[in-house]
Amino acid sequence: MIDTHAHLMVPEFKEDYGKVVERAKEAGLTAIINVGCGVDFSRLSVTMADGKFLFATVGLQPDDALDLNEELMEEWRKLIDADKKWADRKIVAIGETGLDYVRSEIDPEKQKKSFERHLRLADEVGLPVIVHNRGADEDCLKLLGEFPDVKAVFHCFGASLEFARKVWDAGYMTSFTGII
Fold first, then answer.
1. Burial of 7: CB neighbours in 10 Å, binned 0-12, 13-18, 19+
2. Rounded CA gap, 41 and 29, in Å?
3. What confidence tier does 178 reach under pLDDT thresholds 50, 70, 90?
4. Which superfamily does CATH assign the domain made up of 2-174 to?
5. Region 11-24: what's the mean pLDDT?
6. Which residue of 27, 58, 119, 143 has the lowest C-beta tally within 10 Å?
7. What is the average per-residue pLDDT within 121-145?
8. Which residues, including other chains, have CB under 8 Å from residue 138's CB and lie 6 or more apart?
9. Are the C-beta atoms of residues 136 and 116 closer than 8 Å to each other?
10. Are the C-beta atoms of 145 and 98 separated by less than 8 Å?
């Protein structure tokens, strides 16, 4: 069993991070994907990853869309390219990224631009994306459709069953939490 969406780099885990990982192993997990959700958390995710049990992603949540620039994209490209040279790859996805029309105060057009840049990077480097979607169902699917080779998982899925079917029909995956 794999935990596909953890944030072990948050301050709440700083004091007992090692114990958290040990408990996960004792509970039968075979891997944890430590999801980057901001500039600093993405860097920490990569630093923490071992490519055996703990894996990393790089990306910006919709709330951080304004932090995305070419310098950061180039940093991620270099990290991913360097990571590809090792047998135990650490970086396994781009994200979390996406659109949040419910909670985010960032202009939807700026969110779309950030999401599109993440999708383009995923397409270039051959990695899947972890999609954050809140109230932006059709826009998320439309943008993903522009990158047909990119695989995606809609994490913490909370939309309708009808939309879930559209996601699955498009070949994407969903993950669920206790909010369902």
1. middle
2. 22
3. low
4. Metal-dependent hydrolases (3.20.20.140)
5. 91
6. 27
7. 97
8. none
9. no
10. no
Exposure of 16 in the CB half-sphere (CA atoms within 13 A): 6
**Would you state the pLDDT for residue 58?**
97
Q: What confidence tens digit (pLDDT) does each residue in 32-76 have?
A: 999 998 899 999 999 999 999 999 999 999 999 999 999 999 999
With beta carbons less than 8 A apart as the criterion, state whether 156 and 5 touch.
yes
Residue 17 amino acid letter: Y
The structure tokens listed for 94 are: 């781009």
pLDDT band at 137; cut points 50, 70, 90: very high
Where helices occur in 27-170 by DSSP H, the ranges are: 39-48, 70-83, 108-125, 137-145, 161-169
Query: Tokens standing for 83?
Result: 């990571």
- The rounded distance, in Å, linking the Cα atoms of 163 and 143 is 15
Predicted structure pTM score:
0.94
91 backbone dihedrals φ, ψ, rounded to 5°? -95, 115
pLDDT at 180 over 60: no
113 class by beta-carbon count within 10 Å (0-12 exposed, 13-18 middle, 19+ buried): middle
The whole-number pLDDT of residue 176 equals 80
Spans of all domains in the chain:
2-174
DSSP category for residue 88:
S
For residue 43 the two structure tokens come to 């860097």
